[in-house]
């Protein structure tokens, strides 16, 4: 699976599970951490955990496992590290507090509108 296919699968999975305000930021020109950050929030801690679990499940069905999974005790920020793509799943209040998009504002916003289900 190519990096682009993996990115699209992650975004579609988050969208199907009703993740809010999904964003993809290309950061490969800024850091060696990863090529992309995917940022999303859930409506509750349980929803955030469900989003992360579903991404992990769907990718594992394709034989792709995260190198690391980190979560705080309240599931308000969960990180799935797939080396080239790092998925940040937040509870809404936690996302608003850390403003990760602002920290990586020099990255390139990826247009994902064609991947999202129109309601």
UniProtKB/TrEMBL annotation:
Subunit and interaction comment: Interacts with ribosomal protein uL14 (rplN).
| Family (UniProt) | Belongs to the Iojap/RsfS family.
Q: Which GO terms describe its molecular function?
A: ribosomal large subunit binding
Query: What's this protein's name?
Result: Ribosomal silencing factor RsfS
User: What function does the entry list?
Assistant: Functions as a ribosomal silencing factor. Interacts with ribosomal protein uL14 (rplN), blocking formation of intersubunit bridge B8. Prevents association of the 30S and 50S ribosomal subunits and the formation of functional ribosomes, thus repressing translation.
**What's a Pfam family this protein contains?**
RsfS
Instruction: Supply the NCBIfam families for this chain.
Output: rsfS_iojap_ybeB
Query: Thylakoid: is it a keyword of this entry?
Result: no
GO BP: cytosolic ribosome assembly; negative regulation of ribosome biogenesis; negative regulation of translation
Q: Which GO terms describe its cellular component?
A: cytoplasm
Where does this protein chiefly localize?
Answer: cytoplasm
Keywords recorded for this protein, A-Z = Cytoplasm, Repressor, Translation regulation
Q: Does the keyword Repressor apply?
A: yes
Localization per Swiss-Prot or TrEMBL = Cytoplasm
